[in-house]
Every structure is written in structure tokens, then in C-alpha cells.
């Protein structure tokens, strides 16, 4: 990779070089986000892979679809970090990488990899560490989510048990905050010449988000704990309905216009007006729609139950009503719209085969093409040769002594 | 605000100036993320506020805690965008804002606010538009979530109905991607002198994330639809348990070490070993832990059911086991740890009162202090005077003709 690479609209981060020493979701997603916008992100793994290398889901070959999903577009260097020679290689990779380099993303607390140690060698170092909690204690998405209030507010009103999320939303948000942190620090460095040390804790991302959305203030200021309201939207009118042919649809009326269109499309003007008069309510107001949501949903459900999905689509498609059909991941994967989405493209991932995968969700004027994840150690030799200037002899020596690993020839796959 | 403001470690985005013409969650969260790192973010609202200005939850005064949560640290300009004079003011604010300006964040498709129109006046314009779907059709978090597979994979195995999330995770992620897009484009501009047009669709953020985490590949490649598994973690051992004194705890054993520590702490070595021998299984392996999760959870649950929370805490605190206690938003708000968190601080929000709120989750060497949200139009006069150079006479004229609004004196609150 040419560290002097010039940014373009589709690769605005070209010239940026990040060394990622991390596992699981948050940090790798942050690194991948930057890689998919043109940054050169080198992911460091121990020979044979780290703890996340075999995480579910896996392809029949044993390759982790989780790993290949979260590490697209990166380069892979496999090096034994228990060895002083291995640590020295990574240290040089970080500190000797030109003006766009000297950037570390990690989720572990290794003294040799710390800001203190590395900034001695590279004074303008940018170092971001993802933590579980701000005090350094460990946490994962699921433990943070439990402690932040959402599982006890999820599910129907009769629900007693906490409901965990399937999407590790805090890992995802944390990884994105890490990308924001690195880009912000790089801006600061470009302008002032100074590097810096940053951190972001999974627990803080969850706490901040719960506060940003008003949940924490509501509890502090109103003395209210957000109740369980099933699939309803808090403070408005939105809910799931079942069609005659047993499809489930989610319908959202956020504004007075959405609501008016929904009432018209479902032919409910008469009963809704009668209710408004009898209850002295005004359902064009969100508050009243929410207060009487069960009544209004009851009326609407009869309409949905009397129409097939295709009829529902006809009735709602010419309106402002926001709605969608619930579907499974399998149905999502088979959807022609997904195939046709400019963000999606085919990648041929060794051990997995050809399948649709996404490039960055950020669209620009340049066409997007996803780049597959590396095979473990795929770029070890290239990095040692091109980025660190080692000779073939030196590289072979490191491989033979197990300090560095490259894939066996038959596993290499198409670059 | 001095557009020449020099970045610092705690305010790495000082000198960046963003004009935000957007509502609801995604774009405002993106803008706030930048504002909390030092960018000057001016949020534009119509006089009286936009559709999100009264969203739940609300304080007793009627002020929206959702709005005040999502718009911290911004400046507020209230201007009638239906008026040509109003549009001209915003156009000038965007295009005449010095080298750190010329940046627009929006979630609406207004022709006068488009990249095409504005880049005529400011060739290096950076313009990011958040959309529902990539084809421009509208969507909101809840409709996107339904269509992306998660609600049908959430909840217990007996669950039939879709389970919506309470956290609008796609809004949150989309806003963070928008911040990443703006920072990336600013880097590109700083290096090449060129601006650009970007977009990010809520639907694409959800689709990309489902793919990045392996859900889409699993469906395409393995022909498997992710089943419902309640509060279990897919592919490992993690679940909720109930203590003797009726507390719910989430326990996660991701690695062999976590598992060994959990088995030791719960005194289950003997039955677990007996099972391993009888089943020819090895529970130090994640696959086997997952396959036999119900058996292992059954054993563990008896231990938790026989111990109070305090005893559980004693037993697990000296181990590597990852765990937490489920709590409500109210319990979260009352937690001393939250008060003591360096990210949190007291803000005095007009119409709400004093309460704990978060600064950026990104920690640097500088102390973090949250800055409250503006009152609607709080900075109208200041922006017209200082940023646009208008005279007091011109400002009064705009206010009297209703093109621009400022708060009534008694609503202003402490700056």
C-alpha cells in the first residue's frame, strides 16, 4: 500500500494507516469502517487466530462468517505477540509509518502497546483504546445492555423476564464512536502536529445513548420508569399488525399527515371521528394517538385482518404512511432489492464462497464495491517486505521461528 | 464562536462548522456527536419548532427530554424556511463560513438546500444527506428493523410475534455513520481542496450491519435462518439467571477461562465433568457449551436460585466471569456509579431543571463537561450578528417579520 495514497471521494481516508490489535466486534467494526473508506487498516492476530477467529456463525469449512463479516477490506498480519521480536515488529509498524500512520486501535491493555510506551518512539501517536467500563473493568455488550435498562423495557406488557437484544447494538455503536475518535484525533494532529490518547467504554456508550434519547432524564426528572409497551412506539402511533394471509407488518404514523392517510386508507374515518367526539380527543395529536393506542390499534387490526398483504401494499403505497413487512434474515437474503442495492456486491471469500456483502453504507459519487476479508496472515510477508523493509531472508527466518505466520499456499484464495 | 478556534485534545473538532437542517434522531445525534467534540453545530428549526420538538418523553413543562437529549452543545437558529429571506440566511450561513465551514447535514430533500444548488456558491461544499432508503423513499428505524430480520429472531423459542427493539439502534448507528462521513469528507477536503456529496440510508445501515455480523452470510451460505434462542448468546454460553432474592443477572462465559471460573465459582465441577464424560463433550469449547446450553444453564440456575445477589457478587467478583445485574432506567439513574462517571455532569436545562447528562463517550486527557441543549432560537440574534454581520436594525426587522425567531426573554435560561 502506498502511504502517500491521495484521498478521493469514494476513498476519503486514503493515506490513513491504522494498526488494529483487537478482537470481537467493537474495535474490528471501527477499523473496518475506516478501511471501507480507503484507510489502510492492518489487523494483527496471533498465529492461528485469536479467540474470535472461530466464532459463530461459521461456514461448513469452519471459517467464521462473523470474522469475515467484521474484517473486510483489511490487511492481515499474523504475529506472535508473546515474542519480543513479534512485539518489535508491531511497534515498528506503528511508529515508523509516515505522516498518515502512528495510529493504534486496540481493546486490550498491553503495556508494550500502551500510549505511554509507543509515544516515546512516536511523539505524535494517536492511540484509542476500547474498554468495557471506564474504570478499565471488563464488560461485553450483553452485560452492558442488561445494566442499562433496555431489556426490562422490552416486550409486551405481560412480560416478566428481561428480553436481551439479538443485535449487539452497543458493540456496533462503540465501534463507530471509535472510528469517530480516530478521525477527530487525526484532524487535531493534522492541524496542530500533536497526537493524543483516547478511550471509549462500552458501558459509557450505552449510558450516553440512554441519556441522549431521554430515558435517563425521564427517570430523573419525571420519576417515571419507561413501561413495557410491546411493539408500540412510545408517545405516538405505531405497531405491528397481521394481514389476512398471515404476514406481519409494522406501521408507523409519526405525523398528523401519516395518521390522516392511514385513517383514509383503512376506511376508518367514521369510527375514528366518532371516538374523537365521544372522548373529547384529537387523534391528529400524537399524545392522544398514544393514549388511545390500543383502541385505535384494535380498529386498524380489523382492517389488516381483512386484507391480504398485496391489498395492504396497494392501499398504503400511494400514501405517506410508513410501513414495512417483517421478514427473516433468510427472506432478506433472497430479496431482489438487496441484490440490486448499490452498496452490495459479490465477494469470493476463501472457505465461504461467493456471496453478497456490503461496502460502506456511506454513499458518494464513486461506485461502491465490497472488498473481502483477508485470510489470516495473508499480508504478513507483504507487510514485512514493503512496510518494514525486511529482506526475504529475514522474513523466512521470522516465519520459521514462528514469530510470524503466513497462510499455507492452498488456503491463500484470490486476492 | 471563533471559526479560527484551534483544536485541542478534548475539542479536536474546534474550527469545524456544521449547519444541521434535520429532525428526529439520526441526523441530530450525528450533529451532536460532532458538537460534543468541539465543532460549532448550528441546528436550524422553524419558528415554534419542527415535528420533533414535542416528542416524548416530556418534562412537566412540556419541554421534550428527547429533544434536549439529542441537541446538546449546539447553537439554535430559528428561521422560517418557507420564506426566501429565511432560505437566503441559511444559504449564506453555509456558504460564507470560512475554511472550516461549508458543511451541511440534513435529512430532507429541499432543492434550495441541495448539493447542486449550494455548491454553485461554495465549490468545496461538503453535503451529507440521511435518507430512509437508498432510493430516497422514506423509512424510520422501526420499519427498517422489521424488514431487516431482527424482530423475528428476538425473544424466546416459544415466541410467535415479532419483538421490536426499544432502542432505535438504526437511528443511532446511522447518526454515527453520518458523523464519520462528514469527518472523512473534511479530511478529503483538507488534503485535496475538494468538497463532496454523501448520503447514508437508514435501511443500508441496518442491512450492512446484519451482513457485517454474519446474519446475511449465514442465510445465504448455510441456508440457515437464525433461530430464536431467548436470552442465550448464539454460539457460546451466556444467559440470564434469577437469584434467591429475585434479582435477574446476565452471565457471559465467552472463553474457556470464563467458563472454568464460572464452574469453579458455582461449585459445579463434578456434575459438569460427569456430563462431559457421559456425553463425550468438552465444555471448554464454545460449540459444546452452546449445544448443551440448556443443560448447563439448568445446573447453573440451581446455584443462582440458592444464593442472594450479594453472595453471587462475592462469588463472581474475584473471577474473570463477565456478568451484570439487570436494572431499570430508574435504577440506572439512581446509581452512584453513574453520578461518579467522568463522562456525566449536571446540566441546568430550561424547562427541565438540573439533571445528570452525558458529554461525549470519547474520553481524552481533558475533563469532560456536558453542555446543555439550546432553547429554540437561543442563538438566532447572535448568529445573525456575529456570523452574518447583520446590524441590530436588520435583525429586528427579520424578527418582526417572522422570518427569524428568538426566545421570549423569560424563557432564555442560563447560557
UniProtKB/TrEMBL annotation, chains A, B:
Pfam families: CoA_transf_3. It comes from the Bacteria. One of its GO terms (molecular function) is catalytic activity. It comes from Acrocarpospora pleiomorpha. This is Dehydratase.
